[in-house]
Amino acid sequence: MRVLVAGGAGFIGSHLVDRLLRRTDLDDLTVVDNFWTGRRANLHHIADPRVRIIESDVERLADLGQFDEIYHLASPASPPWYMAEPIRTIRANVLGALRLLDALRPGGLFGFTSTSEVYGDPHVTPQPESYRGSVDCTGPRSSYDESKRCVEAMLFEARRVNRVRIKVVRLFNVFGPRTRPDDGRAVSNFITQGLRKQPITIYGDGLQTRSWGYVDDIVDGLARFFWLQPSEYPGPLNMGNDREISVIDVARYVQRSFPDSAIVHLPPAPQDPTNRRPDLTLAYRTLPGWSCAVPYEVGVDRAIAWFRANEHSFIADADGYLPPAPVLGSA
User: What does the record list as coiled-coil region(s) (predicted)?
Assistant: First the structure.
């Protein structure tokens, strides 16, 4: 069994790599990452001889032969990062998917982590997979939203026309260990600001809501959907926590660990979605026994502990570069 993970040094990708290495049927695991937003430190603990790490843009990946399973996670997911380089983001998603499809053996499986951002600023809550969304295809978030939607369309057409086996997951807000300190999203932003005794910054009034899924729960769901449970359901499948919490409440909870950091409000971010909550009816039917079991508060406490323990490595971390100041910190 030959498996490739594109974006395997990223926050979620590196956790998925760890789960793949539990498999006894795995002979070869190729991790591809250009370390744009992925971190080498996320893979430093791996000493498994089945793993090889290749530094490359996924869309420019050399011919490595064909793979039985391919998982495409090679894209920045944080607004300040994808807004800084929108064309590069589109290339990673769309051209990356095209390149990876060429590397999939006949009958192989192509897994894709799409996003709840395909729903845009939703007029329906919770959002079911059948909801077509309210997305601005020319707005400041479109490089990410639309390239994810394009890859979904491409994969479902490849399935319809060429019988390619696919599994598409729409991830909602994920947080936890191995997030970049300069990631730019709410939970990591607030923790990093607290550690540095800086103000905890909220864009707008903070009443915008998100559904925060702890990374262990999300990766457990990915493993179940992609290979553990015998289902050929192609998706799209919502995956996340259906407990909806406002950004201001997240900031207040994090502040309890950093009382020296005051909460301050900045001007609202453009087109920041007002709400985000998955309808998980289909997920619970497709993945019996799965749920987001880690309470949000426990997950935040674990994330704070991890950031504290790894603060020294962030100072020395030369991977990538710092993006512009976050403009959509609540995503």
Answer: none
